Amino acid sequence: MSEMLLDLQGVHTHIGAYHILHGVDLQVPRAQLTMLLGRNGAGKTTTLRTIMGLWQASQGKVSFAGRDITRLRTPQIAELGIAYVPENMGIFSDLTVKENMLLAARAARTADDIDTQRLEWIFQLFPAVQKFWNHPAGKLSGGQKQMLAVARAIVEPRELLIVDEPSKGLAPAIINNMIDAFAELKSRGVTILLVEQNLNFAQRLGDHVAVMDNGRLVHAGRMAAFSEDVQLQQRLLGLAL
């Protein structure tokens, strides 16, 4: 198996009085796409937020590129080359698309300072970002906001992209656009961890799959093998790909 870029070992997370993660062991291979699946409430979003330091692990270890990041603050984790797109996308509605992108391009003081070649590449992936460049982000459709959220996450080179339910509520044409974009990112060597409920989306994109249930990892393996095992899918997810 490829070198692991991200490695969670025995991670527990408490939120107030609630014990959400119960010893999660999750490995994400470098330059591949790992799907994190599971029923609602299984602990997927909590896992992502724990990786990003938004919630602190109460026990266990999170390692990135061989470095222990368990106790780092979220800005420190982001500076290591990890980008996170939450389920709510985190768009600044009152700012324009350009201003949203500029906030994420930390090395740039003005939009003219953003790497031109990289911006052109992002416009090819997500034409709506260019089309609505000077429009308030709050006026965009749900699909356009999701495109902006991912575009913002990759406006600077990242080693790891973490995205929570990118296809949620999107039209099929937008989902296909997202699939193409993530495939292009993967081809450029970006490691990707996706939480997803759309199993067709997961099957078309994933190299690896990890399944959570009740705060624990209950399955990990190759997506191709998981896609062929209908009984396993039904046992773990209650449905089949």
TrEMBL record:
InterPro entries: AAA+_ATPase, ABC_transporter-like_ATP-bd, ABC_transporter-like_CS, BCAA_Transport_ATP-bd_LivF, P-loop_NTPase
Protein origin, superkingdom: Bacteria
CDD domains: ABC_TM1139_LivF_branched
Protein name: ABC transporter ATP-binding protein
Pfam family for this entry, one: ABC_tran
Species the sequence originates in: Variovorax dokdonensis
UniProt-listed PANTHER family: ABC TRANSPORTER ATP-BINDING PROTEIN, HIGH-AFFINITY BRANCHED-CHAIN AMINO ACID TRANSPORT ATP-BINDING PROTEIN LIVF
Organism taxonomic ancestry: Bacteria, Pseudomonadati, Pseudomonadota, Betaproteobacteria, Burkholderiales
Domain spans labelled ABC transporter: 6-239
